[in-house]
Structures are given as C-alpha cells and as structure tokens.
Design goal:
alpha/beta, two-stranded antiparallel sheet
Length: about 400
C-alpha cells in the first residue's frame, strides 16, 4: 500500500517548465511515432512499386505493355476472327453460339449491361471480374482471395490448361465453386482458373490479366493458355468497354475492389500496430492503492459537491438510497442490532419494528421512510431528510 504523503516543511518542488514536459512526452512517444512512420513508409513503397493499370489495359488494339494487341493478332493469323466491341450492345450483336465472348474491365459495366450479358448464347471468358460481375455472370463462383505466386502448374484435366502447361500469373485472384473445373490452384486453396457450365454456354473465370497482356505473353505457357481460352470457338468477340456516361450507374465495384493493395496493407499494419501498442501500454488490474491526498478537503465540501452532482443528474433515487443507507447504519447500533443487518434486506422488518417501538410513528410510516420508493421531486427528498433526522433523534432520546 502506498502511504506517500505531501512533503512537510522545506521549499516546495519546482514546477517543470512547458519545454521539460514536452521533452518528456516526446521521449516516451518517439518509439511509437517511429514505428508508425516505418509502417507508412513500407506501405507507400509497396503501393508505389505495384504497377498501376492504364486506361488501355487488356485493350486488343493497344500496343502498350498492358494491352492485348499481340494476342489478338496471333489469333487472327491462326484463323480465329477477333471482333472488338466497345459497348455491350455491340458485343451481344456480334456474339453467337460457338463464339467466345471475352469480357474485360467489368468495373466499367453497369448493372443493366451485366444483366444483358448473362443471357448471351456465346461462351463467356471473364478476365479478373469484379464481385458484381461474378454475381451476375457466374453466381456459382466465389472469390477466395488474392495470390502473388509467380507461376503454377495446371493440376486439372481442362484441355486448355493441360496443353498450356505451366503459366506465369503474377498477381491474381483465386476462386472456388462447386461442380466446376478448377485449374492452377494455390497452397491455401482456391484456383486461378475456374470453368463452369451455365445452361447453354460455358463461363470461364480467369483471375489474372498477365497471360493476355503484351508484356507477359512470352512467359511460360501464357500465350498458349490465352490462345486456348480466347480461340476455343469459331470466332472471338472482345468486349473492352469504354468509360460509361456520367450517371449511367457505372463503377460497380465494391470497396475492396476500389482500395489499392498498398492501402489494404497499410490498414492491416496500422491495426497490428495499434493492437501491439494497446498490449504494451495496458495496465494490469491489481489491488487498489491508497494514496494520501495532496490537499485536505473538508467533509462538508465533499458532501456539497456530491449533492450538486446528484442534483445536476436528477439522481433522486441514488440520493435517497444514500440517505436511507446512512440512516440505517446509524440506527442499527442504537437498536442493539448487528451492523451487518443495516444493508441486509432480510432484516428490514426487524429494523422497522425496533424503530417503531422507540418512536411515536407506526411501522408503515417507518418502513416508508427507511425502505420506501424514490421521492417524486426535490421537495420530497428534503422532506425525507427531515423524517430520517427525526427518527434518528427520537431513537437516541428514547
């Protein structure tokens, strides 16, 4: 138990200056600040190193690194016509049974576009679709999580994958679905390529863009896989939608789709940092430590301050309970009863009877005073105080 008391005599201790207080606080917090800044720096570096997608990503007419012009030209040279569509209407007009409809940049499609695409008779190839596009075009498929493994083996019997062999996916999404063909799985579950049969057509979900881009087409079996998927039909219709008009209900992407990977990593790191700081700074619950007050406070001031708090909160129930409890504590010794009976509900009748015998009041009146309900207003609370004082006075004088 701490029994430190204020120093007596001698010169009072010098008050620390504002500069000293600021320096002490900085020394205690600089470790936390440094850790947070380090986490922010790591997240910013990862976000900066991650390549950003351009407006022409997966565009079959774009010669840029993330475009798909090379794949489209190879397909045409091998006898597979490739029709480029910039709107859902054009894509549906060109799609027919036996055609492969390649759907990219699904974040640019509206709910109406997705609903119209779900009824196409052509086979559909979804390239890294959003959650909204999955719900509309492949409701059996569920996104499992991201994957950052470089390459993977097919691990399935799908001809398009087995003929391509090992493929370099780089960053990709993984999926799971019941009753489907899943290829290029990961160690933690999920597959980068999933194919299901939906009514009259086949829906294939590819969780990576790398096999279709000009930059990655020459890696591993990327070109073979892309040609096997896109050129599986008699012709291919490549839907590369442009930016929709304002107010057309575009941008059907969830919050997780919109947040860059670096931001997600930063949020995760901040949560871990906050948890570690909370564990470090948390105080263990122990016994109550009593310390001497630095100043002497008169009991009257304490009572007055507590009374004002009760009045400000209109806590007449608490105030009346405190008055009655104190009155019973003082009355019990005068009545010759054990002190523990003052707060014992089973001894209430005994206390009321004993007080009524020593005063001029009936038991009903005494019971209402010592155990009655909450006063209705402040005047009733003051009247209760007078009654309790009168009961205590009569018991003392009897």
């Amino acid at each position: 138990m701490v029994t430190a008391s204020p120093p007596r005599g001698g010169a009072p201790a010098a008050e620390p200056s504002a500069r000293q207080v600021a320096g002490r606080r900085w020394r205690s917090a600089r470790g936390i600040v440094a850790a947070v800044l380090a986490l922010v720096a790591v997240a910013v570096a990862l976000a900066a190193l991650r390549p950003a997608a351009s407006a022409e990503e997966l565009d079959p007419e774009s010669p840029k690194r993330d475009g798909s012009r090379a794949l489209a030209e190879i397909l045409r040279r091998h006898g597979t016509p490739v029709t480029v569509a910039r709107s859902t209407g054009d894509a549906l007009g060109a799609a027919a049974p036996g055609t492969v409809l390649v759907v990219t940049r699904t974040e640019r499609l509206t709910e109406d576009d997705l609903a119209r695409l779900s009824s196409t008779p052509a086979d559909v190839l979804l390239v890294r679709p959003t959650s909204f596009a999955l719900d509309a075009l492949a409701p059996q498929v569920r996104r499992k999580g991201p994957s950052f493994d470089g390459s993977a083996e097919p691990g399935c019997d799908l001809p398009a994958a087995t003929l391509a062999g090992k493929v370099a996916f780089h960053e990709s999404d993984t999926y799971e679905a019941s009753g489907s063909t899943a290829c290029y799985g990961t160690d933690y579950g999920g597959a980068r390529l999933v194919q299901i049969r939906d009514g009259v057509h086949t829906v294939t979900v590819l969780g990576a863009t790398a096999p279709l881009t000009n930059r990655r087409l020459t890696e591993e079996g990327d070109a073979a896989l892309a040609m096997n998927l896109v050129g599986a039909g008699s012709s291919a219709v490549w839907l590369a939608p442009g930016l929709p008009e304002a107010g057309a209900g575009a941008g059907q992407r969830s919050l997780g789709d919109l947040l860059p990977f670096g931001v997600k990593l930063l949020i995760l790191e901040l949560l871990v940092a906050v948890l570690l700081v909370a564990l470090w700074r948390a105080r263990r619950l122990g016994p109550v430590v009593a310390e001497a007050l630095p100043v002497v406070v008169r009991s009257a001031e304490t009572v007055e301050g507590l009374s004002r708090l009760y009045r400000a909160g209109r806590a007449r129930d608490r105030a009346s309970d405190a008055l009655r409890s104190g009155a019973r504590e003082r009355l019990v010794p005068l009545l010759g009863l054990p002190r523990s009976s003052a707060q014992d509900p089973s001894a209430a009748q005994e206390i009321v009877t004993a007080v009524a015998r020593r005063t001029a009041y009936e038991e009903t009146y005494v019971g209402a005073a010592l155990y009655g309900p909450e006063p209705l207003d402040d005047a009733g609370l003051i009247a209760l105080t007078d009654v309790l004082d009168d009961l205590e006075r009569q018991v003392r004088e009897s």
